[in-house]
Request: fold
Amino acid sequence: MIAYISRRLGVLVVILFGSSFILYNLAAISGDPLGELRLSREPNAQQQIVALTRELNLDVPPPLRYFLWLRGILGVFVGNADFGLTRTQQPVINEILVALPITLRLVTAATIIAIILGISIGIVTALRQYSRFDYAMTFVAFLLYSLPIFWVAVLLKEYLAIQFNTFLSEPRISAQWLIGLSIASGVFWSAIISGTRKRVLLIFAGAATANFAFLSYLSITEWFANPSLGPIGIGVFSVGVAYGVTQLSTGIQNKAALHSSLTMAAIALVIYYPVQWLFEQDGEIIIYPLLVITLFLVAGFVPLKFSRIDRGPIIRTSIISAFIMGLLIVIDQLMQTWKPYMESDAVYFRPIPTIGQVNALLEPGNFWMSLLDALVHMFLPTLALLLISFAGYVRFSRGTLLEVLNQDYIRTARAKGLTERTVIMRHAFRNTMIPIATIMVVDFASIIGGAIITERIFGWLGMGTLFNTAINSMDLNLLMGVFLLTGFLAVSANLIADLLYSALDPRIRAGAGGN
Amino acid sequence: MKLNRLAQVAIATAATAGLAVGLLSPANAAPKTTVQIVQSNALTGLNPSVSAMNLTFNTDVDYLEQVGFTYYNNKATLVDNTAFGTYKIVSKKPFKVQYTVNKGRLWSDGTPINGIDLLLTHITAAGTYSQIAGLGDPADSDVTPAFDSLGYGGLYEQHVVGLPILSPDKMSVTVEYGTQVPDWRLLAPGVFPVHALMMMAEGKNKLGTVAENNAARERFYKAFDTYNTASLKKMGAIWSKNYNINVVNASTNPLLLVGNGPFMIKSAVANGAVTMVRNPKYNSGPKVKSLQRVVFKVIGDGTAAAQALKNGEVDIYAGQPTADAVAQLKAMAPAVKVIGGDQAVYEHLDLRVGPAYGTTEPYNGPFAGDSQKAKDLRTAFLLAYPREEIMTKVIQPINATSQLMNSLMVFNSEPSYKNIIAKSGVSKFTAGTQASRTAQALALVKKHFPSAAAGSGSVKIKLLYGQPSNARRVAQAALAKAEWAKAGFDVDVTPTSGWSAFLEDPKYDAAFFAWVKSAAFQSGNVGTYETKANYQGYSNPVIDKIYKELGATPFTAAQIADRFTKVDAELIKDAVTLPVFQHPSANGVNAKLQGVAPSPFSPNLVWNLWDWSFTN
Reply:
């Protein structure tokens, strides 16, 4: 095993050096750093050409210049790696350290949501194979998969930012939209739940009517201009969460789990007002981690009241429920911040931005304002990335689960008389996750490289932008810095994925000698 | 008593009404005072005179931070900033110019500005000073001088004699030039807070009192006057390195932010937005009308910038000059208006006559030399170049008021243009229709290649032009190729990436690209066609002589126009080059923003930011 890993590491080094050499030379001959100066009519253009040649060592041919650069990098072995300066005189390493968190913020949320959503939809489609919902989701997945992100982004900006902002100035939903959205919702729910024709029609009518009533209520109360869940919303959603989480985690027939989750819902409702008061004590950030710890402690101890045996799954259920309920309270608080945020000078009644990662004009200091600001800036890029990337997970998890469901051990599990929930959640789902876990690792590595197009369209200045700038301004040090990081991550993620696979699945062992 | 009560009721009513009006009227009633400007690349430093820092964004920010004797307006004319100071010729022989700062001008830290603040320009523009003071030779190709300035080697260095002399009251500086420089107005020294530089060189990182600042400035003057290498080197390191920051926040050394311009940087996020606020001490330039804050936002993508404009996140965006982008901006009316303009950049078609000056590789293509055949072929090639078609199909969709350029010396908007084109003989390339000119061209080709006909491809030509990504150039090339084919030319129009490195390469017979004009020199574009400067291997003693004259003696406008006509006539006679158009610009502007008037020279948009205001 050690021999295998060290051999892979050796190959990794060779690949990195080889590809960096090729990239360096390709980049160096792809453009002319002096181009602009050659066209300059300044009397001292010649002097500027001399200065730039001196700065970038342009008198050294690229294959040799590569080794000048490499000398700095190899310093890593003696403890002082030098990635060089960008053409704008900033250390490359600093530029990368500034860009990296921005990229992470942009892509991590999108990837995690895409994974969760993709896998859940994939699993539902696999369980309802060849149902209307399955066909619909297959259609949607392929549709989204084939959309170019720059186009999706332009549409999202036009409808969800520009027009939505305009809508917010008078947040009444027009009749056409009300009817359209209600029909869409009816179609959606009837497709998911399926059944006989009569049942489908009933569900369609029910969902459409409920949706119509709900949206009309939001429209009439101008909820979008001043949204909140309120204690009633929190209560209703919390009970829903309690039932849902219990069903997935332990099964609804586990009364102890259900009761402890429901107790958590009651607690959420009871602490609603005290928490509001706490949130208003703005500026004392220290209380937030304390709140989270208290939440988990309470969620951990409440189940002890309901059961003396088999406490593990019950505690798990209660903690997951409590976490989601906590999120609901946070969302409610963010909704309450919406109105003051929208009315602030910096936002000027157009809260959904199309570009940037923060509002430069917003006065810092208010925690909820800043958080909301960061979130609204993340909204569109995350949505765009999510839309085009979750389709892959849908297809992949659907395929894998179907394959797993045909395995002998699933038949065995059913034959033992286990409930369907246990078969799916414990036997099938866990095995489905093995191949998915390995592609997730590779996915995470590749997102560090940045979503070049997404970043550009949404004016986010992360790794992708850095890469783009480096190419356009012929900034070889910067380009190579970005490349080394992304290249290293890509190659090592492949290694980790291979190792992870063999660790997760005992049937596969990556041993020495390539057997 | 009664009256009193009535008055009370009246006052209470009025107050209630006032309060109600105040509460009920929407919060956005007052006109905006913050303007948000799109930049396509990030800020990289606060001192654009450092050689690696000469980027648009840096220059724009610096323009708002420091105000000197002159600036360019939207007519490409140099305007005297009399609020700051004055300058005049005090002696014709030797040629001396005195620059005087008005009394009472202030730096943002409250220190009064005086003549010493003008002296740093001498250090950063005169290579001779750098050498004498032991700061390094800027022309050396291995060692960077202490002040890593891009000002070396320019007009100033070519003409300045000795050290600038400070007047006894310290408000004026007199500079002596070797000859009477025609472009002496362009040589006005810049103003720089040398006291801040000196204090940073001494390791300080806090603003000083006015007395301390004055003392620091005196120390600078002493170091300057006595060529104090050690002290100057320290300052050089600060000047070349410490200003190169892209983050400004509370921990930034405030000495770096001292300026005399209308705005000063409040914050800058790495690779992100830059916020500037009014400088409360500002009195060195035109009054700022109403703006309180300027925010620059970095948006690289054109569509994204346009949508941000539509969403009200930015107020002004210098759009991509493509027909699609302009159409997109126009579709946003009435919330957005499009302000078009011309840049000081002009596109032209150059033909190679011989090897470029200084290169050894010979050029033997069809256009080589002075023979009648080469001249005929060049003339034919230029005649068949469909300039009008390029204008109507490629350029006018962007800026409808753009016009075909017919002089290489002056832009169409300049007063002497009409006279010059009437006499330069350019009518040869403008008379008749394109069809008739192409027929003429074919006849010329036939003279030397009897078998030539439309599509015969008798003469093979290799054309050099811009990046493949430049769609406009590709369109131009496609239009031209079709027309050239009708005149018997077979033109290879494959675009070349990194094309500018091949300008001297004799493999190419023709090239189209754009020249950038950055200042209104008296010699204008003549230098471009001087023997040593052009990439075409073109050498004409008449042009060389005129170039020398223009660089040596100040002339009247009429005399200059006369010489420009001669140069144009020579270029047309020899059929070596033709202009096509000035690059158009299209700026999407929030319809409520008034006063925007783009200038062809840097800093294109923000030159008159002080005049901008928002209506309701």
